[in-house]
Write a structure and sequence with these properties.
Blueprint lengths: L3 H11 L2 E4 L5 E4 L7 H13 L41 H16 L11
Antiparallel strand pairs: 1-2
Protein name: Transposon Ty3-I Gag-Pol polyprotein
Organism: Cucumis melo var. makuwa (Oriental melon)
């Protein structure tokens, strides 16, 4: 497993940038290390100018009922946990899935988690 992407992400998380408001609220922003300094400054400036437009927490998302975005699994009292066996995927779909995962990993939407298995 190639951990270089994960290590890059960890280094980015450890060097996160803060946007400070006048009323001492702090917003944490994770910025990719792949950005050049000018891009990073432009991004931070844009975020500072438009911080009211961003939903930093669920409380900031006005008009969205929390029950809509809260996930609950209702189980019956006598229900027992059961682990299902892993199913095989059609080889054609497996190849499509691999390509999609690699594409998401390349653009930084997902990243490998060490010791996840």
């Amino acid at each position: 497993m190639d951990l270089s992407i994960f290590l890059d992400f960890v280094a980015t998380v450890n060097n996160d940038e803060n946007l400070n408001e006048r009323d001492s609220n702090t917003f944490h922003v994770i910025i990719s290390r792949k950005l050049i300094k000018e891009q990073e400054e432009r991004l931070l400036e844009t975020l500072k100018k438009n911080k009211q437009a961003i939903g930093w927490t669920l409380d900031d998302l006005e008009g969205i009922d929390p029950s809509f975005c809260t996930h609950i699994i209702d189980l019956e009292e006598e229900a027992k946990d059961k682990v299902q066996l892993q199913r095989r995927l059609n080889p054609t779909l497996m190849e499509v899935g691999k390509k999609e995962v690699l594409k998401l990993k390349d653009v930084g939407i997902i990243y490998p988690v060490p010791n996840s298995m």
